[in-house]
Amino acid sequence: MQSLQLGIDVAKAKLDCALRLTNGKFRHKVVDNTPAGFKALEDWLAKEGATALQVCMEASGIYWETVAEHLATRPETTVSVVNPGQIKAFGASRMVRTKTDKVDAKLIAQFCAERTPEPWQAPTPAERTLRALVLRLDALQAMRTQESNRFEVARESVAEGIAKHLTWLDDEIARLSKAIRDHIDNDPTLKSKHRLLDSIPGIGERTTAVLLAFLAEPTRFENARQVAAFAGLDPRQHESGSSVRGKPRLSKVGHSFLRKALYMPAMVALYRTDWGKVFHEAAKGKPPMLIIGAMMRKLVQVSYGVLKSGEVFQPELHGA
Q: 4-115 has which fold?
């Protein structure tokens, strides 16, 4: 049976779906990005006779994850999650000038039909739980910073309430931190991989948990360059002829949460570890932010290396 292609443009509240039929025509459907919406999508696909299915969506934000996990359990269905840059480039190659959610969904379905992207591997239940915990911890820490800043300039009429909220946040952050540690310790696979990542100087407990949440299974990536691209840490150059020489920058077309989590560890590695100091000396003379970005990329690539090899960090391989 020939597969049909389903392109999904994902938003926080809704899913714009474009089903490409065998004759090249399209059917469109908009459903809520909720379990009830997933059920409505299933009913619509059954009505359209879409038994065998190739699904494609962009890896933008976090709102795609639940629907991807849901569809990955559907029989005779392959789910692919692609870099948004690929869809943008594909649209440019077809000279698509209109940008709406409906048009984007159709474009994603066409990309799926023509390029046949690699299947996406759903995270394990343990990874999904860890991901939810680290994202919630990050949200609470950001909230605490905001409340702490407010408390410094708060009037007496609201200061007590802010102080109580700060106490609650401290307690909840401590509880979540312990929950993350316990979750990793109670899962043999995560615990073993935690030991490998913990051997990398500069990466602390919190960053290790983030890396495990998103990169625990190295077989999802073909090489370290793909991991860097997943985090948006791959370099982007802009040169043309002899006159255009743009400064190299991080592409930032990838997972922003991972990039944020790696910034401080990169600083620690560069200035407080032997292998990081060697790296910093080799990059001497380059702009500071360029060096930091390069170290962030190095950290994620080294993390991938120890997870893939199953061997702890070896400083002699990095000049230390």
A: Nucleotidyltransferase; domain 5 (3.30.420)
